[in-house]
């Protein structure tokens, strides 16, 4: 997932925020969709994952809810996912503690100029690229033998163990969710999971959004859809910011404190021949409070070819996407230029 750089790393946004003053021009968002003073709230369906793990009498009802959610807004709030509230709080705490350290401590884990992995912020790929008002810690967590532990913070002390435990749990949930997605369309339950692969990658990204002096002009993350099959987002417990585009309108995504927000990524949209929607989303900032989230992107094995499941290609619904291997290799160049990577595989 290496990118081509045109200039070295930019300053941590946390430093810009604490220095005060007008933010640099490069952060001003120029998109035609703009940033309105207020937005409507999205009704995001809440799906009980425990119904998929056992032969629950409610399974059919939850599968219907799941299908409707991911074929309309492209996301759902997953509850009863098997993780305790205190464990999710710990995951948030280790991230918040890390970002609260002085810059020198965080910079022990800085990403290299030509890499995405580690502590840092936007890779600058072109001179007119708009920058996001966020700092990040980006780590490959699976397969385990690809972890670069030197980029995993040693402080706070529990950081590595907590993140490891989370990834073990998410690996199990990913299989459960991909199988439920298939069952919700009356397909053989492995049809998405087989394309995903046993050795798929997972990338964790802690996103830290300092208060921003110009939330009317600057975004925390610019509009994009994910290049994953699915993404798990642990939201900040108190501060909203995520928005999803639905029917050409931006909506705020509400916080359900101990739910995981799961969204469809481009690769599940491709595998489902467009039945499931990989939603465009973005993050707005605010001038009062910092916000932190943890996104985990679940990416199919790079050397497995993915493509629309044959049963979903019909006369009424012709094949919408070509088959492709290693979709993420297309991702960054297109993303930073404001283009949708999925458009490059549309037929
Ligand atoms: O922080 C959020 O709410 C969303 C983050 C996100 O979209 C991303 O990390 O790609």
Automatic annotation (TrEMBL):
What Gene3D superfamilies does this protein's entry cite?
B-lactam Antibiotic, Isopenicillin N Synthase, Chain
Annotated region (Disordered) at 1-22
Pfam families the record matches: 2OG-FeII_Oxy, DIOX_N
UniProt-listed InterPro entries: DIOX_N, IPNS-like_FE2OG_OXY, IPNS-like_sf, Oxoglu/Fe-dep_dioxygenase_dom, Plant_2OG-oxidoreductases
Top-level lineage group: Eukaryota
Q: A GO molecular function for this record? A: oxidoreductase activity, acting on paired donors, with incorporation or reduction of molecular oxygen
This protein's name: Fe2OG dioxygenase domain-containing protein
**Record-stated family:** Belongs to the iron/ascorbate-dependent oxidoreductase family.
Has keyword Cell membrane?
no
State the organism of origin.
Escallonia rubra
Keyword field contains Cell division = no
Keywords from the UniProt entry: Iron, Metal-binding, Oxidoreductase
User: Start and end of every Fe2OG dioxygenase domain?
Assistant: 198-300
């Amino acid at each position: 997932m290496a990118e081509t750089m045109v200039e070295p790393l930019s300053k941590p946004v946390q430093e810009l925020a604490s220095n005060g003053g007008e933010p640099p021009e490069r952060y001003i968002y120029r998109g035609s969709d703009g940033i309105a003073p207020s937005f409507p709230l999205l009704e995001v369906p809440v799906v009980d994952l425990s119904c998929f793990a056992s032969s629950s009498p409610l399974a059919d009802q939850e599968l219907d809810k799941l299908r409707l959610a991911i074929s309309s807004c492209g996301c759902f709030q997953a509850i009863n996912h098997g993780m305790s509230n205190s464990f999710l709080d710990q995951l948030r705490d280790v991230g918040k503690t890390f970002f609260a350290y002085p810059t020198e401590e965080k910079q022990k884990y800085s990403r290299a100029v030509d890499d995405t992995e580690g502590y840092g912020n936007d890779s600058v790929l072109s001179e007119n690229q708009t920058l996001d008002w966020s700092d990040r810690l980006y780590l490959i967590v699976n397969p385990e033998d690809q972890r670069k532990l030197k980029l995993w913070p040693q402080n706070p002390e529990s950081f590595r163990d907590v993140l490891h435990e989370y990834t073990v749990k998410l690996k199990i949930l990913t299989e459960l969710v991909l199988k439920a997605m298939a069952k919700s369309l009356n397909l053989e339950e492995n049809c998405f999971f087989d394309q995903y692969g046993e050795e798929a990658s997972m990338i964790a990204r802690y996103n830290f959004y300092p208060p921003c002096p110009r939330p009317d002009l600057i975004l925390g993350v610019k509009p994009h859809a994910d290049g994953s099959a699915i993404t798990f987002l642990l939201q900040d417990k108190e501060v909203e910011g995520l928005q999803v585009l639905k029917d050409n309108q931006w909506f705020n995504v509400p916080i359900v404190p101990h739910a995981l927000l799961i969204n469809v990524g481009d690769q599940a949209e491709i595998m489902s021949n467009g039945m499931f929607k990989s939603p465009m989303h973005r993050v707005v900032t605010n001038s009062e409070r910092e916000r932190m989230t943890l996104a985990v992107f679940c990416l199919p094995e790079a050397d497995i070819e993915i493509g629309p499941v044959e049963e979903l290609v019909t006369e009424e619904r012709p094949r919408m996407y070509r088959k492709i291997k290693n979709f993420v290799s297309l991702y960054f160049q297109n993303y930073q230029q404001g283009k949708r990577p999925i458009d490059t595989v549309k037929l």
